[in-house]
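Forwarding the complex inputs:
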Amino acid sequence: MYAQLVETGVKRLKTYEEMSPEERGFQLKIDAETKIEAKNWMPEGYRKTLIRQISQHAHSEVVGMLPEGNWVTRAPTLKRKLQLMAKIQDEAGHGLYLYSAMETLGADRDEEIDKLHEGKAKYSSIFNYPTLSWADMGTVGWLVDGAAIVNQVVLQRTSYGPYSRAMIRICKEESFHQRQGYQILLDLMREGTEEQKQMVQDSINRFWWPALMMFGPSDDQSPNSQQSMAWKIKRKSNDELRQMFIDQTVPQLEFLGCTAPDPDLKWNEERGHYDFGEIDWQEFFDVLKGNGPCNKERVETRKNAIDGGAWVREAAKAYAEKQQQKKQKVA
Amino acid sequence: MADWPLYEVFVRSKHGLNHKHVGSVHAADAEMAMENARDLYTRRSEGVSIWVVPSAAITASSPDEKEVLFDPSDDKVYRHASFYELPDEVGHM
Amino acid sequence: MSKAMTQQAALHEYLLRLADSDMILGQRLCELCGKAPALEEEMALMNVALDLVGQARNWYEYAAELIDDGRSADDLAFRRDAHEFRNALMVEQPNGDYAVTMGRQFFFDAWHYFTIAALTKAPDERIASIAAKAAKEVQYHLRRSSEWVKRFGDGTEESHQRMQTAVNDLWRFTGEMIEADEIEQSLFKAGIGPDPEQLAADWKGLVNEVLTEATLTPPPEDAWMYRGAKVGHHTEHLGYILAEMQFLPRAYPDAKTW
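Prediction (whole assembly, three chains):
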């Protein structure tokens, strides 16, 4: 979800016979669930796919600070303010864990961030939607982090060791995020005024479909999934994850006393799953291409922060060098 | 820009345990690396002690050399305490 | 101090000063969310902001208990108007560039550090315990902000220029922080808070030391100082800060929960 449509550059899976001895050894390790570590030999495609996926994931965490940052200065109570601040800080932290995992593959963080700022790198499309009311802080925590967790729990078993370890750490820390969001909504629905309850329903109406899109296109539209699954970078298909998310979310939605903006959403006894309506994939691809409500603002904000901070980072570096020289003189 | 170098971070989570590698941070100097590591890796009071080491200063074995580096010691059982059988009367050692 | 103001009322005022300064500076740092000059700084800024808003909550809670007029800690933070706020003028100044952000932080942290240290010795146990928890946090804030002042001052030509400008511009808000009024004088006599003369000397000593090490020129001692926060006369910035910070409780006055 935080990494949608990751290119693998591979059109068709190779059979064991078609692989070079190195590739075969690598694939056997993967098949035996042995984690790949930074210094292991790996196919170039695997390395590049991972760099793309982990950097997308990291960018998503960092850009994901902005929709919530939009309300942190307007949080309505001291408790809510502190919770939201802690959550946003975790997101920055998770971005850093992920960039750190990515750098073990020989990628340069600054270069990857530059790609984001030039509009060449993707990040989760969900963060291109605006947060328009306080209830969105609840919905983002509940639906957006909820969808993220479904994906990330599975990614703890991803084949690349540093990525897997970052995911384990992130999942451990993120458990409070979804609860924090759900509790905001629950409090508003239980003890809120009529206006506050409407705020919640309106927020769910706006975020429901974009949250479902977070898992990426349907399996038959995901040409890269097959290779990512064979490399065990991905562990479950987009549609499987989406269904898991819906199945666990609908009872929570009902408990809130709210509805989803989907007339086709209903329990299917035979399948043992919820059926749901057709996702507007045109909207998904539009947002991914840069035509979402906030794409421009999000990327600009990040770019301005890093570009505008160049003199700060240079100053710190210059100071460090001067201090080093002083130390050497003394010694 | 590539301006702040990378430091590897090791955290001792409890007294009596070894420092364990947890990830990396970028920083202009070691002092800043220490503070950044504190902010990033011990937000939930996970640590009692932190080491930061410039990533460039680390030499790592290649996992593909595992056999050369580590297998020879597999037969040096005398390095392991259980190799030495002591009479029960000696008690715990 | 006017005769009408009892020791108790003085304490209420003082607690609000502590709380409001923490709160407003925390709010200013929240504005930087997602906009820090490096990702590592996002973590650090939010850490400091979390500490400050956490401290504000502790002081507001105690103030609300003592004032005891039915207002909660949240009411004190979100339902008072600018003229009722008692935060230092320094903390309501805009973030500016990162030299201003760090200069503001450093001037405040230096004051905060000595003030909190003295408050840990207060005979009022609640104050002493809130201060004891804050003391560790504030020590870290001060170390961080003074390091940044040094980095900028002794960094590049550009950063030196920016830092010197920030120091010069912010200087006029430092006077009121280290100049005790009757309330602070009387509380000091009751064992609460720092010795005013000592605080001023400590603050000046530390600030001079750091600025000198940073190769910056401290502004003249007799420079003109902007005053008024202690009686609710703020700069124009505070009204806008509150308009944003208090928006929800003000727009939905009937809301009982958030």
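Chain C touches chain B at residues 38-40, 43-44, 47, 144, 147, 151 (CB under 8 Å).
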